[in-house]
Amino acid sequence: TEITEKLEEVVRIWIKQIRQILVESEQMRREADDVGPSAELEYWKTRMSSFNSLLEEIKSSRVKKIISILQAARSKTLKQWKELDGSVTIAANEAKDNVRYLYTLEKYFGLLAKASPVMMEHIPSLMNTVSMIYCVSPHYNTSERMTSLLLKITNQMINTCKTYLHEG
Question: Which GO terms describe its cellular component (predicted)?
């Protein structure tokens, strides 16, 4: 029981740390007013990397051994652990999905940044792709996420126009 208590304490520390990571990941992002859509992709790539690393750690043999010992001891700590494990998996899958869908827009990011203000030729296909993401993505189809993405696309268009005017 002494070993079980020490292992439970270790798992409680892990639970606290993982909860902190999950809370921080859900906090509102602070971004510059003129940030473009590539920042959205970078944000989700970073988040995907973080959660994948966390998942790898959770699935490591060291952690699995501790969890199996606590399962054998019928530890009550495991209920919280399983819930957090599920939450981390959901967050990792969400980030992975969002990166996959945002990659479909990446070809437009460069076009928008380098185009002249007469970028109208790219807008219909860009908007069709955004619409497809909204319809198909299980995680990215919220008004908050779409608003953020469309704002960044608009920012990029404005920045492109400003650059064109300053160079012209």
Answer: axonemal dynein complex
